[in-house]
Amino acid sequence: MAASASPDSAVKQRIVIENCAIATVDANDTEYATGYVVVADNLIESVGAGKAPEGLANVVRRIDGTGHLVTPGLINTHHHFYQWITRGLATDHNLFNWLVALYPTWARIDAPMLAAATQGSLGMMVKGGVTTASDHHYVFPKGSGDLVAAELAAAAEIGARITLARGSMDRSEKDGGLPPDFAVETTEGALLATEEAIDKHHDASFGSMVHIAAAPCSPFSVSTELMREGAKLARRKGVRMHTHGSETVEEEKFCHELFGMGPTDYFESTGWLGDDVWMAHCVHMNDSDIAAFARTGTGVAHCPSSNARLAAGIARVPDMLAAGVPVGLGVDGTASNESGELHTELRNALLINRLGAHKEAALNARKALRLGTYGGAQVLGRTAEIGSLEAGKLADLVLWKLDGLGHSSIADPVTALVFGAAAPVTLSLVGGKPVVEDNHLTHIDEDAIARTARAEAQRLARIAAEG
Length: 467
Known about the structure:
nine-stranded mixed sheet, four-stranded parallel sheet, 15 helices, disordered N terminus
């Protein structure tokens, strides 16, 4: 159902948060040292300095935010939820060797495993301030069950918004790709399954909890036909498109050898540049690549921790932003970022990019926060709904506790959030509904998630060992 402002005649239930610092991340980067946010049903009704307006009707909850910072909910633009149950493996590998080592295990995943991994991955992110997350799921072994339905059902129990990028692979080892032969789909089968996922689950209405994107995995695991036909399918259905791009030097070499051109030129030749497209990583981009992304409005999911874990390199984020490329942050799969938390990526994006050519001028605290909020909304095509605290937008917000020991001597709250220790989440709302209270998930037992994920990880390891 569409989520919109209630008619004036309707009874609105309001939540009032006041006495807090506020970073709206609006177009003017408006901030309030002490201010308020009023939530009416599922929408932000007002944001401002000082005390909330007097005489508000139907206030069902009033929160004293002293010692806290309110920001938009964080938006994760790239993940692989299933990897939660294969964390801590191949820890000293580069990307290609890591994929070769793990594909045989991933190819044994089934619906119960994915459900458990989804709740582990998403639960960890939501505890850390994520209110919208994109998952790129591309492993669909034969006989594994309805993985899309299993993931969405598991995610619904957590309560966050989801963009499920329905991935696919049709280039296996026998075709010169990396995945084992039994881990891929046929081209036709992948396209049909992607269309079915869109038809069954994509909800384009305002305030939707589920978006579906078309998402062939990567140039080295997908045929050119699947890339081209996948783009046509997505545009016919009016959904966004996602894939991995320019992650490593090996990928660039692979594209030149196989297609006679670099990744960006290859993507453009297959219809995979545009303002309805976002790509993960984009580490190895030259000036012409960045210009092509800016010209077409193609977005980037920057995953600094994963890029460091796999020794992929440092993405040219400052240059992308200067050129006008939409950039958001991504955790990436928890087999290449075991912490699984997006709020740590605010800090890591800032620090890692300062190791690049721009040094201390690369990013600051507020630019990092923008990447994790409004930048993510840009990349996912949802800036009319989320990504900033503005009247009429969805009430997806986070109340960060900054008056404890970890932040006690940092005067500026945004600096404290980005540069300091990971801040506890006192409250996180998705559409005005709490998903985190006092640093704990509200809808589901965290210990139960941990037990189930551990058991499914052990079951997957046994199955993989048996071959």
